[in-house]
């Protein structure tokens, strides 16, 4: 798959689709039990990625708010900084 001139086989596409489907949340897999079309899977995946981005943004905002309310030298602030570094 690394070469530019090489075409991807149907088997490789099916394998990638299966891997992508496995990354979606269990509720999405249950809702679409069985085989879903590749286009539907891509739409579901895009939707899931967008929701993850929204969740990350929300958590970042909440963390920033929390950090502004606490003493930057407190043990709690140090714990948060340590978590952000890892």
Automatic annotation (TrEMBL):
Q: Which residue ranges does the record assign to the BHLH domain?
A: 1-52
Its BP terms in the Gene Ontology are: regulation of DNA-templated transcription; regulation of growth
Q: Which Pfam families match?
A: bHLH_ILI (PF23174)
> Is Transcription regulation among the key words of this record?
yes
Give one GO molecular function term: protein dimerization activity
* InterPro entries (alphabetical): bHLH_dom (IPR011598), PRE (IPR044293)
Keyword entries, A-Z: Transcription, Transcription regulation
> Keyword Protein transport on this protein?
no
For this entry, the protein name equals BHLH domain-containing protein
């Amino acid at each position: 798959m690394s070469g530019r001139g090489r075409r991807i086989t149907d088997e490789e596409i099916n394998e990638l689709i299966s891997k992508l489907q496995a990354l979606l949340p269990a509720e999405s897999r249950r809702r679409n039990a069985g085989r879903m079309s590749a286009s539907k899977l891509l739409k579901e995946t895009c939707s899931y990625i967008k929701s993850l981005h929204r969740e990350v943004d929300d958590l970042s905002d909440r963390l920033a708010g929390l950090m502004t309310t606490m003493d930057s030298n407190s043990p709690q602030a140090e714990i948060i900084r340590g978590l952000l570094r890892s």
